[in-house]
Amino acid sequence: MDRRVAFVSGASRGIGAESAVALARAGFDVAITARTLGDGEAYDHVGKVAPLPGSLRATAAALEAEGGKALCLQADILEPEAVEKAARSTLDEFGRIDLVFNNAVYQGAGVQERLLDVTLDQLHAIYQGNVLTPVALVQSFLPKMIEQGGGTIVNMLSATAFIDPPAPADQGGWGFAYPSSKAALARLAGALRAEHPDAGLRIFNVEPGMVVTELMKASGIDEAVLDRFKPTRASSIAAVVAWLADNEPSEAWKAETCLRGPAIAQELDLLEVPSYLPSRE
């Protein structure tokens, strides 16, 4: 039987990179996208132009070591045409799509600002990266999934979309822009289920809890935030994503608007899963 095919956005580091490798281990070939193609490339991360650890090439090497085929597709979520082109390239290369993981997130200027300090340009960028581009990606792959008779879509959300901040964004809490974009993305799953009830589609929203990634550190997540939450490993959330590819959540989990990754990882004994990217530890 041919290997299944997954598409993972934001796969140069963090949850996306770990998930791409976990999916390869689970029997997938994986198309991966991000801005960072090679190690050492510098991009604007929350107003600071600097390189961060991780790259598509590093992720590709790790997932190929697990037996999967990698397709590196450099794309910026602020450029929907590039992401749509990546989707077409994936279908051209593999001829099918079995799982789409909308993991990439905009973490530029404005995500940790108070409301009066957020500009309209920043809001446009946040909504483009976190809502409009993921929707465009689903629109690109959905017809093929329906033609195949099914597929899985996993959208990465945030608890901040559903709960009020304990403090202002610059004092250990969060602002309006980022959570509201994730709240908008949360509505995609319910709409797809209603529109395509018999198409074999499985659509999940996953809330990862506090996962400390290189990008989060660059965005200003500090000890004041970490003191309020118990961090979860990126590899644990990746294991949950790979589990969702082959398993059906319990009825109790299905009743939730958003599957809570740490709770699932704990129930499945996945909290201490080691990194799928050994060089990252």
Distance between the termini: 34 Å
Strands in their spatial order, largest beta sheet? 5-2-1-6-7-8-9
Q: Which class of secondary structure composition applies to the elements?
A: alpha/beta
Provide the low-confidence segments as ranges: none
Q: What is the chain-wise order of helices and strands?
A: EHEEEHEHEHEHEHHHHEH
Tally of individual domains: 1
- Tell me which oligomeric state these chains represent: single chain
- How many individual helices? 10
Globally, the shape reads globular
CATH architecture label name: 3-Layer(aba) Sandwich
CATH superfamily: NAD(P)-binding Rossmann-like Domain
Radius of gyration, taken over Cα atoms and rounded to an integer in Å: 17 Å
CATH class: Alpha Beta
- CATH T-level fold name: Rossmann fold
- Percent of residues in beta strands: 15-25%
Largest sheet: 7 strands, parallel
Instruction: Tell me the helix content.
Output: 40-55%
Report the strand count: 9
Average pLDDT, rounded to a whole number, is 90
